[in-house]
Specification:
globular, 196 residues, 9-stranded antiparallel beta sheet, mainly beta, 3-stranded antiparallel beta sheet
Length: 196
């Protein structure tokens, strides 16, 4: 179960945790299709580095060895949009370490979202530092076009979101995106998102 007092909804996207004031699923803002004219800045998986977190697909025993037992678990929360191997059973679970989330199915786990608010975890996207001090202005210095695509976040219209598409080695773009979620201009969450 998620944190006390918050009901775990069944979600159709891999990495959503109920926000402090959740938006009902039937009224949630759908994620718009990226506009290539605006989002000219694409990223590669190699550009993204996490500090203090296992970021690759790992086993559940490796995850618990590195981070311990989760604070809470939302059982069956990942119905589709999984980033784990196709041969793993769905629905999968979402494990929460505070606001940091791991998708878990079978004996495999993958990072879904990194909460940077308490300073425990951080990362880098190319030259952009991803921590609790990162602002929209910092993003604009490294990715000026991306800031032009700021929109209300899918998890709460009170938050802002910037999405990056991943460029694969073959020149194609990946189905998923990397989303940076901001609260009043300060980074709070780095999220992997995959469509159903």
């Amino acid at each position: 179960m998620p944190a006390e007092g918050v009901t775990a909804p069944t979600i159709s996207r891999s990495f959503e945790k109920p926000a402090p004031t959740p938006v009902p699923a039937d009224t949630a803002t759908p994620r718009p299709v990226p506009n290539p004219a605006i989002e000219a800045e694409q990223i590669t998986y190699k550009m993204l580095v996490f500090f203090g977190l296992p970021s690759e697909q790992i086993t559940v025993s490796q995850l618990t060895r590195q981070l311990g037992q989760p604070d809470s678990v939302a059982r069956g929360a990942v119905e589709c949009g999984s980033q784990l191997s196709d041969d793993l059973p769905l629905p999968g679970d979402m494990w929460y370490y505070g606001g940091t989330q791991y998708e878990v199915a079978g004996n495999q786990a993958a990072l879904g979202a990194m909460d940077v608010r308490n300073g425990r975890f951080s990362g880098k996207l190319g030259k952009l530092v991803l921590n609790q001090h990162t602002t929209l202005q910092d993003v604009a210095r490294v990715f000026p076009n991306a800031v032009r695509s700021v929109r209300p976040a899918a998890m709460s219209a009170a938050l802002q979101e910037i999405s990056f598409t991943y460029l694969m080695g073959n020149g194609e773009t990946a189905d998923g995106t990397l989303n940076l979620i901001f609260d009043r201009g300060k980074l709070i969450l780095v999220e992997h998102w995959f469509p159903c």
